[in-house]
Specification:
Order of helices and strands: HHHHHEHEEEEEHHEHH
Keywords: Signal
Number of helices: 10
């Protein structure tokens, strides 16, 4: 319960803590949709399922989902699974390690939470990771010639797939129990930019953010002799998805809150059950 409470609490606060420019981005990107009510109700329903699944057995939790699952656990557990499905691990640019810099600007939030505010490269405990679906730097034998993303492929169980160009830039702090989603675009979205588009059964089996984050959380906790059960905070430094922004906007309106600087606005299960559930259901990992 603590993890999920902190997940929503911190996620909304972190968006608020990014300063006027990012808050303006939040306002400008919200797209009012005719199906906002349906979007909201679906998010509340999903949030209720996720919250309830924490208090039952794995088998019972799986049965709560639609379609029903035999287990709530992912079938993928290690980074080898990530690589098997066409992903590449890259060395992140320094902007994804400078948590107090202009690009990210959330070091003060980490300090307020009393967790490491620096990347490992700069003496902190946060491992910065970049994973892309496809190799943006993959070169042919000819100098200065790259294989376009639209032509990059990989094989799984005898079937050839095309890469999508998806990317995940995130940080893992196994000592303080923190995962930070800094920038991400899932295969469902990036696949639409390919020519021809990649969708449906042609997408990789690992396509959610959690499919990528979890193997790395397991990797770094094991390497640092930390508990895999020790997640305390899941932070999101940037939210630009129109549907997610709509849910945030509605949650603020329904509770008559205004998004301000850190510590921003918090939502707790016991006090704002519906809004809490909607945020959890839509903004989950």
């Amino acid at each position: 319960m603590v993890v999920l409470l902190l997940f929503v609490y911190t996620l909304v606060q972190l968006v608020a803590g990014l300063g006027p420019a990012r808050r303006q981005l939040l306002s400008s990107l919200v797209i009012r949709r005719a199906d906002d009510t349906e979007l909201w109700n679906n998010a509340v329903s999903k949030g209720c399922i996720l919250y309830g699944a924490m208090f039952v057995s794995d088998k019972e939790a799986g049965a709560m989902f639609k379609p029903q699952l035999s287990s709530a656990q992912s079938e993928f557990h290690g980074t080898d699974d990530v690589f098997d499905w066409g992903y590449e691990e890259n060395d992140p640019d320094n902007q994804w390690r400078d948590f107090g810099g202009n690009r990210l600007g959330f070091a003060h939030v980490l300090r307020a939470l009393q967790v490491s505010d620096k990347a490992e490269k700069y003496g902190g405990d946060v491992h910065s990771v970049e994973v892309t679906h496809g190799d943006l730097q993959w070169e042919l034998d000819q100098p200065n010639e790259q294989v376009p993303l639209d032509k990059q492929t990989y094989d799984v169980d005898g079937k050839k797939y095309r890469v999508t160009g998806a990317f995940f830039r995130f940080g893992v702090n196994p000592h303080d129990g923190v995962i930070i989603a800094m920038e991400r675009e899932t295969p469902q979205f990036s696949g639409q930019d390919r020519n021809p588009p990649v969708s449906g059964a042609d997408l990789p089996a690992l396509r959610q953010s959690s499919d990528i984050f979890w193997p790395y959380w397991a990797k770094f906790t094991a390497e640092n002799s930390q508990s895999i059960h020790g997640i305390r905070y899941f932070l999101v430094s940037e939210i630009t998805n129109a549907e997610s922004l709509s849910i945030i906007e509605q949650a603020l309106q329904k509770t008559k809150n205004v998004l301000g600087p850190w510590p921003g606005v918090s939502f707790e299960y016991e006090k704002q059950y519906t809004e809490f559930s909607a945020l959890l259901g839509k903004l989950r990992c």
